[in-house]
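Whether sequence alone determines local backbone shape is best considered at the level of individual chains. We regard such an encoding as a compact summary of how the chain folds. The sequence in question and its structure tokens are set out directly beneath this paragraph.
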Amino acid sequence: MDAVQSMEAGPLRLDLSGVSDFDSAGVQLLLSTQRSVQEMNAEVLIVQASDVVLEVLRCYGLEPTLGAAGPTPLAQVAATR
């Protein structure tokens, strides 16, 4: 959260490609971070995600909510793998 509070203008880009364990606590952290960043009129972009992260986000139906860089939804990133 310190990084979120001190970030400059622009999106917060997250590389989650190295994440090997991801559960509901990780989802809560991502959603909380997204909410904090949106309050600063910015956005969170997942630029890369491991298969574990993709599976959990799909399970919770969060692919449209937590998108990838640019207009490409996370689901499309998974489809290109």
User: Anything to note?
Assistant: The radius of gyration is 12 Å. DSSP finds four helices and two strands in the chain.
